[in-house]
Amino acid sequence: MARSMGVRHMLGAVFAVHIFIQVTCSLEVKKFPLLMPNVYPDRDESYFCTPVRVVPDKSFYIVGFEPTATMDVVHHMIVFGCSKPGTTDPYWDCGEMATSDSDPKLKKANPCADGSNVIYAWALNAKRLELPENVGFQVGKGTQIQYLVLQIHYSKKFKKHESDKSGLNLIYTEEPQSKLAGVLLLGTGGAIPPRSLTHMETLCQLKEKKTIFPFAYRTHTHELGKVVSGYSVRRDKYGVDRWSLLGKRNPYTAQMFYPIFNKSPIKYGDRLAARCTMDSSNRTDYTIVGPKHENEMCNFYIMYYVEEGTPLDMKYCISEGPPYFYWRNEENNLNNIPEEEASNLI
User: How far apart are CA 178 and CA 33, in angstroms?
Assistant: First the structure.
């Protein structure tokens, strides 16, 4: 590991630490610590990002993620793959809603300036994730991912003289993996009315002539989420939509990636759908989608691999959310909607 222009570099053979473990019987892997550089969140709802530069003349394959964070300190964290980071500073303010009282010494920028896609996300003391055998996220040479950026949301400000270096270890190998991994994030915008049970829903179609094989899913909401569910939808020859449940969870449980419910391949023309059931019965005002703790989010992540070629160009599937977008909208042309199943844990 080295530092240059404030950006750490992910090297193949030269590391500050050499840690060898075995994910499979034959695959030699190493750990790369992607950590915050002793940051000081001086206000509530701080979002900090820190980058690492992937050596451009080598390919690496990330095959696992090992968190080194606790929910007592970190609300959630996300690893982005970027063509270019928001800045090349050691860290910066990457909150979606910068405030006037934020540290004037910090630059304000998005996690990625170009080529943004989510690789991994963590919350609520989720445990380590290992990818299936022969599956890896390719980064570096031959890919658009030239930087990895760690984003951490601190919901509470720190006391004076405290700092943080939470993050995770990237488990990786230089041995080419035959199945390349990707993540598709389904989410919504919108606003939740007070004292209501609201469905936040999104829908998109796979328009690339690729076949993806889902193997893990993750859910994320803030305080109002009760159930988050995700589906693949395929129309049969009789015009009936067949909904296959990919995953369903109470978002208050550890927000890790869990094994997918249905591993059937998702093909060109299939649709992907997600619903978050939100209970605002104890709120007296509208709750909008946003990054702060009092805001809400509705996210369903699908982690998948492809057996041929590269992962999807589509990285995000985002709808306007309530009160504008629902599965039942006529223009979506959906039928056989699993209303009860999608909103209940049973």
Answer: 25
How many other C-beta atoms can be found within 10 angstroms of the C-beta atom of residue 147?
24
Among candidate residues 36, 83, 29, the one with its CA nearest the CA of residue 56: 83
Which residues fall within 8 angstroms of residue 25, CB to CB, at 6 or more apart?
none
Apex 232 CA angle, 229 and 112, nearest 5: 75
pLDDT at 190: 97
Amino acid residing at 100: S
Least confident among 25-29, 78-82, 228-232, 295-299 = 25-29
115 pLDDT more than 50: yes
**Residues 52 and 10: beta-carbon distance below 8 Å:** yes
160 vs 15: CA distance, rounded Å: 33
For residues 170 and 209, give the distance between their C-alpha atoms in angstroms, rounded to a whole number: 31
Amino acid at 78: I
Name which of 292, 314, 290, 294 is nearest 302 in CA terms: 314
**Residues with catalytic roles:** 75-76, 151, 153, 220, 222, 297
pTM of the model: 0.89
Structure tokens at 11: 């090297």
Query: Torsions phi, psi of 339, nearest 5?
Result: -55, -50
**CA gap 340, 1 in Å, rounded:** 51
DSSP 81-147: EESEES-SSS-EE--SS--TTS-TTS-B--SEEES-EEEEEEETT---EEPPTTEEEEEETTSS--E
Q: Which residues contact 281 (CB under 8 A, 6 or more apart)?
A: 195, 196, 197
